[in-house]
Amino acid sequence: MPFDFEPTEISESPDFSMQARETTEGEAQANVTFSLRSQGERPLGKSGELSGVAKMDPREALLYLEEARDRANEQAMVRLAEIAQEIEHKPNTDNTLDENQRTRFQRQRIWIQTKLESDNRTLIHSDLPALAGYHTDPILVKPTELHRQVVYQGLNQNIYQSLGVQDGEERGTAMLTRSVGTSKVDELLGTHVISEEKYGVDEHGRPIGISVRVDGFGVIGKLPERREYQLDVDYSRPEIQKGLYDLEVIDYITGQVDRHPGNIFIDPETGAVKGIDNDLSFPSRSREDVLGNLGDALGKPVVNKPLFMHEDTARKIENLSPERLRQTLRALKYPGEENRGKLTPEEIEGAVTRLKEMKEHVRVLRGTGHVVAEFNQQTYNEAIEHQKASFARENANREETERSLDTVMGPQAVGRSNKTSYLGSIYCEQRKTEIAIEEGEARDRLDPEGVRQATNSTGKSTRNPEQAELTRLETERRNELRPRETEPQQQDFERLNARVAQMNRRLERLEHPNLWDRFKAIWHGGVEGAKRAFNGKRLEALQEMDERNRIIEGNINLTLDEERGARWDQAKQNVQNARLQDQGNNVGLNQSQHVDVNLGEEIDGRLLLNPEKLGLVDTKPHKPGFALKDSSEISIDDGEKVELNKQSSVRDLMRSRDSDKSPKVTNEPEHELDDDSVRSQVGVKKTDPTTQKGQSLKTQ
User: Fold this and answer.
1) Which residues of 110-213 form beta strands (DSSP E)?
2) Which residues pair with 207 in a beta bridge?
3) Spatial contact of 441 and 401, defined as CB atoms under 8 Å apart
4) What are the angstrom distances between the C-alpha of 472 and each of 114, 271, 465, 568, 635?
5) Which helix (H) or strand (E) holds 38?
6) What is the separation, in whole angstroms, between the first and last Cα of the chain?
7) Contact 424, 383 (CB under 8 A)
8) Of 297, 215, 220, 304, which is closest to residue 261 (Cα–Cα)?
9) In the chain, where are the structural domains located?
């Protein structure tokens, strides 16, 4: 049973609210999308995230759009009837109309009447010019926009079918599972480069796919007034390079074909990389077939396997068994459905095949020295040069300036070129930005602070503090438990690691075998046979390590489950303590200061402080602070000054009162405040103008 602040495996409508997202005019969406926000205390994400985006299954999405369009169209027909009456009476009531205007109104009335009497009364965008003078009426515009989305939805389904990402008559009923499946593959490998994707159920009992909001900004993104931005950060940072190459690994295994820079998010603070919008994955066709039918998706996916790979990621790929991947994907289905939303056997086996191909690619990368312990400037430069060389080969028959990625001035040529890495794809976007700036186009190069201001976004997901603290404590405890669980098997791990290292050395020698190496390889049927044999022994050792690690992980999880209640209590207590500390800092002073609490006028002796703004008098406003839990009163004589330091708070004054100790006071006339300043800073409300010598502070 989940705790109050803990997310559930499947989010259900009482725990969140849904609101249809606004779309840019002419924007073709892969699916109908909604903004989601957690209601109450239960977050959407595992780390306490409170917001996200939801999508419907395409079949339900189309029905949803058609129903919304039809409702809007009925309202539009009522409005058209009203307009027809206005037009009919206008020539009789407006003597300023000339003959041309009268003729235009007459034609307009006839057009409206014909539309109202037609069997096809759907209002579409091309109808609006006939309604000149009324064409911006929101009631008339809304059904045309919804109809456009209906058309786009149908076109998108055809595109997906041509790419092999949906199957047969159900027209993409597993689309939500493709996103969830991508997230599950990311979990299996422990790469943490995919937004958390999960199932949900809306208020009508329909399955939805939920993409939990991630930290950071898209490499490219939309701005107001049809402008775009390109995120300007140092993409050579080791953590960013690793994240981008890990994302390539996940996208290759899942068959993702829609990974453009707009759905690659980067957190500028941590360098964490996250892929969003993950539903164009798990095609039923081969990768070669899919890449040959990209159409509008041309230039989005990376056409080759990763140029580099981090050692940790390489090990994880080698350890992941095809059967474990197969079982994970087979288990996925829509909530509350018997078999709906399941990937087909062909789609699952396609992912298994690509995993095997990636395992072989790891072996090749090890042989060429492209499995690295750390990314650096050299690995970054090599990726960029690889992209430039690919562009030059593609455009070998063009003029000299059009053959180089650094001199080409056609953004379309850059955009549709083959991408050899996500670093290369981002470099192409940087070139497109340079071209746009030179041409005066609507694209800006913005650093993270510029994006924050332009988008009015912090770039951070809002989180439930208790769940976020629980996640932190669990990670901390997991790291404590691992050495304890691993220690009894340490010798076995050392033996297996030595075995892997031995096979690696033999495989490296066979990449450039000498005569003696070739002679010894005869026992295995030659060099290639020896490579297969040594690689097989290497994989056996890695898989044994993986099994041992899974047992260790299971033991750790059992311990964590046993401690779950106590850890949850600790998380809540830590959050409460942090709040009290923050509140104390908020209501205290930044340095030792003297504050006059005398308002300078005779009043009843009672000042009511708004608990939501309680913060003691300060020489400058503080952000809203905390409220006392009970109603307490402190008497302060007229004209006295209260001395506080940065650790002081209202609680200190409460303790002074409760312990029969007076607050420390001084009569030094420093930092005098006028009445308005005092009231604005503490939320003071006068209750009665009666004269009194003493005054008191009382919480509401």
Assistant:
1) 197-201, 207-212
2) 201
3) no
4) 66, 19, 10, 11, 44
5) strand 33-38
6) 38
7) yes
8) 220
9) 10-57+173-455, 59-159, 465-575
Quickly list DSSP for 524-580.
GTSHHHHHHHHHHHHHHHHHHHHHHHHHHHHHHHHHHHHTHHHHHHHHHHHHHHHHH
55: three-class secondary structure by DSSP? strand
Residue 660: which region, alpha, beta or left (left: phi > 0; alpha: psi -120 to 50)? left
Give the span between the Cα atoms of 152 and 154, in whole angstroms: 5
d(CA 522, CA 295): 49
Hey, CA dihedral for 353, 355, 359, 362, is it positive or negative? positive
| CB within 8 Å of 295: residues ≥ 6 apart | 159, 162
Q: What pLDDT digit, counting tens, does each position of 424-441 carry?
A: 999 999 999 999 999 888
Q: Is 414 within 8 Å of 435 (Cβ atoms)? A: yes
Cα 139 to Cα 79, 494, 587: the distances in Å are 7, 72, 50
Query: Two tokens at 401?
Result: 């300036």
Q: How many Å apart are CA 347 and CA 354, to the nearest integer?
A: 11
Question: Tens digit of pLDDT for each residue in 137-161?
Answer: 999 999 999 998 888 877 777 667 7
CA distances from 144 to 72, 74, 75, 123 (A): 9, 12, 12, 6
Nearest by Cα to 443 from 219, 216, 277: 219
Banded model confidence at residue 413, pLDDT cuts 50, 70, 90: confident
- Supply the angle between the helices 465-486 and 527-562 in degrees, to the nearest 10: 120
| Cβ partners under 8 Å of residue 406, min gap 6 | 388, 431
Distances (CA, A) of 527 to 94, 370, 520: 96, 22, 9
DSSP H helix total and E strand total for the chain: 21, 21
pLDDT per residue over 448-483, tens digit each?
A: 999 999 999 999 999 999 888 999 999 999 999 999
What is residue 309's DSSP assignment?
A: E
Strand partners for 231: 446
CB 255 within 8 A of CB 349: no
Q: What is the DSSP letter of 180?
A: H
| E runs forming strands in 195-313 | 197-201, 207-212, 217-218, 220-223, 227-231, 264-266, 273-275, 309-310
- Angle CA(564)–CA(312)–CA(211) in degrees, nearest 5? 55
> Within 13 Å, how many C-alpha atoms sit on residue 604's CB side?
10
Q: What is the pTM of this model?
A: 0.77
The answer to whether 659 touches 586, Cβ cutoff 8 Å, is no
Name the residue with tokens 């140092």: 234
Q: How far is CA 455 from the centre of its chain?
A: 15
**Distance of alpha carbon 651 from the chain centroid:** 40
8 Å CB contact between 515 and 590: no
3-class SS at 196? coil
Other CB atoms within 10 A of residue 551 CB: 12
